[in-house]
Amino acid sequence: MVEFTQEGPDRPVRSREELLGRVLDLRDLVEYRAGTVSSRMIVNRRAGSITIFSFDEGEGLSEHTAPYDAVVTILDGEAEVCVAGKTFSMPAGSTIIFPANVPKALNAVTPFKMSLTMIRE
User: Fold this and answer.
1) 99-104 long-range contacts, Cβ below 8 Å, gap at least 24?
2) What is the pTM for the complete model shown?
3) Residue 14 CB partners (closer than 8 Å, separation 6+)
4) Mean pLDDT over each residue of the chain, to the nearest integer
């Protein structure tokens, strides 16, 4: 059993401050929603951020670049990721590092959740 708040796991965690010093299952921090991409930023600092996403099947992020390196870990489900024109199948538990300024895109093969860690400094 994962403890989210002092009141227990039935009470949803509403703020980033409530996440501090807690044991978390990142998959529980964002819900699947039909036809959408949902996200929740859990850390936001000058040096970087951590955001948890959920994608419904068929949803994705179109090709884009970012000025920072990023680490993506698939928490649940399966995604297809393209980096610099090369496509990878990523099941739950897999991780990829997106280099700064390199084109990347992703698509949900099944509904999936991921953790995105952006490194700014």
Assistant:
1) 99/69, 100/66, 100/67, 100/68, 100/69, 101/65, 101/66, 101/67, 102/65, 103/63, 103/64, 103/65, 104/63, 104/64, 104/65, 104/66
2) 0.84
3) none
4) 89
Cα–Cα dist 26/43, whole Å: 12
CATH of region 31-119, choose from 3.20.20.70, 2.60.120.10, 3.40.50.2300, 3.40.50.150 = 2.60.120.10
| Residues 72, 66: Cα–Cα separation, whole Å | 13
Domain residue ranges in the chain: 31-119
From CA 115, how far away is CA 79, in angstroms rounded? 12
